[in-house]
Amino acid sequence: MTINDIVKETIQTLNAQKTPLTPRNYQETFCRIASKYGFSIEECHTREKYIRRLNETLQADIGKYSVNTLDELLIYLVSSLNRLTLGNSGKQKLVTMTLVKNLLEHIAAFPDKKSRELASASLERITRLSDLNSLEIITQKWEALLAERDLNYLPRMQQLAQSRSSDISQLLDQIEAMLCSSESQQQLAEMAETVVASLTPSLAQTLDDEIATISYTLQNSPELLYQSEIQQDLKKLIEKRIRIDKEEVKERILSLDEILSEVSS
User: Fold this and answer.
1) pLDDT confidence bin for 248, thresholds 50/70/90
2) How confident is the model at residue 149 (pLDDT cuts 50, 70, 90)?
3) 57 in the same domain as 28
4) Are both 75 and 97 inside the same structural domain?
5) What is the pTM assigned to this prediction?
6) Cβ neighbour number for residue 182 with a 10 Å cutoff
7) CA distances from 129 to 103, 116, 121, 179, 241 (A)
8) How confident is the model at residue 183 (pLDDT cuts 50, 70, 90)?
9) How many domains, the chain?
10) Close Cβ partners of 131 (under 8 Å, ≥ 6 residues apart)
11) pLDDT at 50 over 60
12) Is the same domain home to 230 and 192?
């Protein structure tokens, strides 16, 4: 028995049964006769080949129905697809997948390198291959990442911010405010030193009590520079410091005159 013999018997069988010689009728009859004579023709096992490519859930479900031909397999798949997209369960799965993609897009923008890279890889895999095996692989990778993650950064940030908030954005704002405050304090301290220096008489050997008091106060509390009352006092004390220097100059000139007079006499 050869392939040509099977072809000949197929045509004879169809003619004897008065069955139209259509491609479908021919293939079904040909495969049945080939199987009878022990021939294994690849084209006759297309249905089984496609079924093996489906996931285990669909393969088990197909076993509940009479799916004997490739056409019947296509009808089953179309029906399953319609149930998936139109049924409540199908809608829920689609919404869930959309939500997962949106979450991954957000995670892909995270500053954490490992999370960002895995999110990008997961998005690419879901977009290209949304079969069950791909989703299981992605799930396993996320579980492995979570198992190895060191999540103690939150307590460290709370300690830096001196806050119990669990909102990272809020903690960052608080840390930034503290850094800015620290920088402002440093600038204020430098400004206070400059002001104190401007209050110190240039020529007088002793420091006026009033000037000494406010100089000490500003060195310990530079933020007082923002108070209008202190600012007014500073203006008066600067004028006072100028008067003290002028008086010191006059005294020194008088002393110099006396010395010159003694030398000349």
Assistant:
1) confident
2) low
3) yes
4) no
5) 0.31
6) 10
7) 18, 20, 12, 47, 82
8) low
9) 3
10) 55
11) yes
12) yes
